[in-house]
Amino acid sequence: MRLLREILNLTGNYHVKSGIYHYYRNEYKQAVDFFRKALKDEPSLADGDRRLARYYLAETFLSSAERLEQKGDIEAAERDYARAAEVSPDYPDIRFQHGRVLERLDRTDEAIEEYRAALASQQGFIEARVAMGFALVAAGREEEAAEAFARALDIKVRQIRDPFEKGMRRLQEGMADEAREYLREAFYAAPDRFDHHFRSAIRFIKAGNHERAVEHLDEALGINPKYADLHNYRGISLCELGRVDEAVGAFRRSAALNPDYVEARLNLAFAQIRLGQFKEAEAQLEAVLALDPAQTAAAVKLEELRTGRAAEARRAASRGGAR
Predict the structure, then answer these.
(1) Alpha-carbon distance 122 to 158, whole Å?
(2) Quick one: pLDDT at residue 188?
């Protein structure tokens, strides 16, 4: 759900904006306070602001938990993973990480339930299924463990076979670029390496080091080129580096991989506005509002485009008038 900063600035709710500001400064306590204040008035909160508040509240608890875990404060980390899961119970990676920490605290039965919750949201989450298998072995539940490992093997084989077969078909059809992507997915997939590069990229984005973020995102895309989130994150970092042409391509690829990815489409529209591609941006904003009528930033910017104010602001900035 990562958005460009100019989009976040159009968030209507003061508490949500303030929470996001503190989140990106790694000031987690202040961020939590602001997001909770926003959600306290949830019935009167706009749908888009409510989704942002809940998303970033979960991300704040998750980031805090990861930092506490790195510091070795496992019990405090477990509490924040639990809080993140409470805010966003269908987020499989939170449930998986919570399960890992529960195992470190010898709370094996609770860990198993967290892995099950992760799998309920994402059946193909092989790392969660394997972790559950080992936890079941530790709990003396051998039959359940055997079933978990057998299912993990089926998923693992399918993860290789399906892109392999698609890649071979594309080769036979003379579609070399698509074939290359599928075959890379089949043979280079490495969950540990992917996870390392993905998490490293997120840390560098939060730290404002977008050059390093792009390096790690490129490595992650070499492993999994069809992960829409990676292209969206890459577009954000490229925008921060002033490489807006490339960012437009990244956002467009993200939206093509997942046409319902509202945030990628919104980022694409705002990047196109930076380039003066107003007609293209207008079409994207209309598509965003068709998918999610509660997107305040899209509605505000679309009105600016239709009245010509966006073009005027850009011309003023290019003349040095916006100082």
Answers:
(1) 15
(2) 82
Nearest to 155 by CA among 189, 182, 117: 189
pLDDT value of position 115: 98
Confidence class for position 321, pLDDT limits 50, 70, 90: very low
- Integer CA distances (angstroms), 317 to 266, 280, 281, 311, 314, in order: 22, 21, 19, 10, 5
Q: Which residues, in sequence order, are CB contacts of 9 under 8 Å at separation 6+? A: 17
**Distance in Å from the first CA to the final CA of the chain:** 30
- Is residue 265 within 8 Å of residue 291, measured between CB atoms? yes
Which token pair is 287? 């598509």
Is residue 322 pLDDT above 60, yes or no? no
In the predicted model, is pLDDT for residue 88 greater than 70?
yes
- φ, ψ for residue 304, nearest 5 deg: -60, -40
Q: The tokens 């094996």 sit on which residue?
A: 108
Q: Which of 4, 1, 2, 20 is nearest to 281 (CA)?
A: 4
Q: In the numeric block, which tokens belong to residue 33?
A: 């306070």
Question: What separation in angstroms does the CA of 151 have from each of 100, 139, 147, 225, 252?
Answer: 20, 19, 6, 25, 35
DSSP string, 155-210: HHHHHHHHHHHHHHHHHHTT-HHHHHHHHHHHHH--HHHHHHHHHHHHHHHHHT-H
The amino acid at residue 245 is D
Does residue 190 surpass a pLDDT of 50? yes
Q: Which residues contact 155 (CB under 8 A, 6 or more apart)?
A: 124, 126, 129
CB atoms within 10 A of CB 309: 12
pLDDT tens digits, residue range 30-74?
999 999 999 997 777 888 888 889 999 999 999 999 999 999 999
Helical ranges in 25-107 per DSSP H: 28-40, 47-71, 74-87, 92-104
* Helices and strands (H and E) in the chain: how many: 18, 0
Dist. CA 323–CA 317, nearest whole Å: 8
